[in-house]
Amino acid sequence: MDFLRMNITPYYDLPETDHSDVSFKRIPHATVGDQYGNEFFILLGHDAIRNFNKRTFSFVYTLTQDFLRNHWFSTPVGIYDGSTLLYKIDFTAKRKITEDLYQGAIFIQPDDYSIHKLEYSGSYLDSEKKKKEIFNIEIEYGHEPAVNSRMCLKYISFNNSFIVPDLSDKNFFKLLRTEWEQIGGPYADYHMHNMTIVAYFNRQIDPVSGRRIANYDLTIGDRKAKITSINVNGPNLYITVRDDKFQGQLDSCYLNVKNVKDINGNIIDKRRDLEFRQFRELFVQEYNKPLEFQNNCFMQAEPLEQNCISITKESGRFWMNTPFKAIEKQQDSQNH
């Protein structure tokens, strides 16, 4: 079967967002650098075997320096990869460096101590104590049939969970509008200035977070107003400010609200979350001699679909973009 997909965004940016911590794509309990927006560069950066003397990912970090001291290891167990004997060693990250669960296995050939495979995954317990995977990495190297050949990459697979706000969610807790309590503005009554603004929300406001003055910034004209008191009444908020002579500036009034909740605990402007998994994979189909390119170029620090592709007469023998769609898998099986 084909994978279920949802077209959220062409790259990392979400439409109509401003890259804030709230609106930007988030990975729970982790951060993945965009490596200049190129998925291939992300894969290369997470190859801890090839980059044995460079910093890669938690908690392998630099393989030759940090891997051993950051993990507990099991007794090696002999297994066979075809006719090749390998030692499989399971490991778990030490609790002193992380409260989350990081574990995996490393496969080593005892004859020459070459690393053939590395499996590594991270997970955490959510608020309901359910195990949730953060990321999973698998890297495998192998020899060509030729004698004394060098170890070569066979595949690298890196997938992680991520969360984005549901832009179709229009029912989140939000501020609807603000207006002066006094019709005509605070100075409409010459003898009694009413410096109270009424903020209307779409849900009843939590009285505890709603009364905290630190949760609001009010700007009138080009000046920040001094809030003196706040009263909560159902879905309405009454904010009184100091009279700092705002005549002539009342047409511009902006209220910024943060950390306020409704009576059900929903945070202001927080849309419903959508959770997805993202897969990046590179499979080496064959190792070949240098090819003669009709049009060759170096990969640039740009998203792959905007990048250059080196073309040779042999290009038709290779395929890109896994996994195959269902119809492509059927055709491929028929051809073989």
Question: How would you sum up this structure, described in words?
Answer:
This protein has 336 residues and is mainly β. The chain folds into 2 domains: 35-167 and 272-335, no CATH class; 175-257, Immunoglobulin-like (Sandwich). The protein is 7% helix and 35% strand. The protein has 4 helices and 17 strands. Strands 1, 2, 3, 4, 5, 6, 7 and 15 form an 8-stranded antiparallel β-sheet that branches. Strands 8-9-13-12 form a 4-stranded antiparallel β-sheet, with no helix packed on it. A 3-stranded antiparallel β-sheet has the order 11-10-14, with no helix packed on it. The longest helix has 10 residues, at 326-335. Residues 10-23 and 322-329 have low confidence and may be disordered.
Overall mean pLDDT score?
84
Work out the strand percent: 35-45%
Element-by-element helix/strand order: HHEEEEEEEEEHEEEEEEEEH
Give a count of the beta strands, DSSP E runs of length 2 or more. Answer: 17
**Portion of residues within helices:** under 10%
Number of domains: 2
* N-C termini distance: 19 Å
Q: What structural category arises from helix and sheet content? A: mainly beta
Low-confidence stretches: 10-23, 322-329
Radius of gyration: 29 Å
Number of helices: 4
The outline comes out as elongated
Sheet with most strands: 8 strands, antiparallel
